[in-house]
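Sync notes, pocket subgroup
Present: LS, DG
LS reminded everyone that the earlier model was apo-only. Rerun requested with flavin-adenine dinucleotide included. Inputs:
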Amino acid sequence: MDFAHNDEHREFQDLCHRFAVEVMRPVAARYDRDQEVPWDVMREARAWGLHGLDFLQRVATDDDGQMGIIYAEELHWGCAGIALAISASGLAAAGIASSGTPEQIAKWVPECFGTADELQIGAYAVTEAQAGSDVKSLRTTAKRDGEEWVLNGSKVFISNGGIADVNVVVATVDPHLGHRGQASFIVPKGTPGLAMGKKEDKLGIRASQTAELVLEDCRIPLDHLLGGIEKLERKLERARSGQTGGSSNALATFEITRPMVGASALGIARAAYEWTLDWLEGRADERGPLLEQQHVQQTLADVATEIDAARLLVQRAAWMGRNGVPMTGGQGSMSKLKAGDVAMWATTVLMDLVGPEAGSPDHPLEKWFRDAKIYQLFEGTAQIQRLVVARMQTAERRRAREESATPEPVRA
Ligand SMILES: Cc1cc2nc3c(=O)[nH]c(=O)nc-3n(C[C@H](O)[C@H](O)[C@H](O)COP(=O)(O)OP(=O)(O)OC[C@H]3O[C@@H](n4cnc5c(N)ncnc54)[C@H](O)[C@@H]3O)c2cc1C
């Protein structure tokens, strides 16, 4: 087993890092303060080959599955809010790729990115006011009316909400069936009945727009149902007849993206760690140079170790995902859980180390501290990740016990 980066990984990491240093960092504080969509940086990302279909293809064809997490860590090192604004369309594209027919994927995934001249973005809308962690309780409905679907409901906390060209909306077709009665629909920008509700004023990742999406008698053509009507009818039929099997489209999408979210959190933790090392360098108090004091060294060693440990979990999960190794022990969720907790913890203890001035808005540490929190919240809260990991671990242990209890086949 070898997670050492090859030449292509190193070259790509260097490109991402230069983009973070030269394009993102200089404007990070401004976008954080003004809470504006960083369109100019998003266009630059396209020009640098770090956004769009070509970029996706490059990342997806990496046999080790490491390019996506390298990208996420480096860009979030630059600025988590801007990085999310650049990459949130990927979630919509993943939703389309995991549920759509080949024709739908070919049509709608490119629409989530647009062209170099005309940038487009996507949004993936699942969460509702009463259904965040509890995804099976979605209330947004999709009803068939002749040759159209009619969507009604409201989605909250949607990244790129209200500004996306392509919205992938998860709605319930049969509320009695929980997540098995749900389906994903494409709702293009400008569809009558689709409107932006409240735009959130946030603690962190402020350059990424988060808003409510309101759907009122929003009519879309039949073929905007991802996967097609026959697949949905088969799924509903299986669920109604009590057959087990099949899984939620939303959950499948989140599973694919979890190591990327973990890598994003690591970018913030690493930014805070590296900045604190620089800040400590050359500083001294009455006890001598700060970097030579044992309590400082204890904290730095713990932060470095935790970041490395989390990165190994992220690299393993990304590799497993790319190579089709089933994550039966919850490895994808573990990686996101650990990295999110490390980012929040590391930014907290590093602020403690620097002291009261670390809380000043002129100080980058306080921004990284604010940006870190979301990685314990979205794409499955830390508490939900723990439930997922615990359940998968238990199931894996039961399976192993059953297999070991199976008698050996009789040999002739
Ligand atoms: C900035 C931002 C961007 C987002 N972007 C998107 C997006 O693009 N698309 C989208 O669909 N959603 C998005 N979300 C929504 C996000 O995924 C949800 O906020 C998250 O899933 C939690 O759901 P909730 O807010 O309803 O909290 P709840 O589910 O109500 O949870 C509240 C608290 O209770 C805990 N809890 C809940 N159930 C349990 C349980 N069974 N056991 C133990 N603890 C539990 C949770 O861990 C949490 O601490 C975004 C949210 C934010 C803040």
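DG: The chain has a mean pLDDT of 93.
LS: Residues 403 and 409 are 12 Å apart (CA to CA).
Action: DG to write up.
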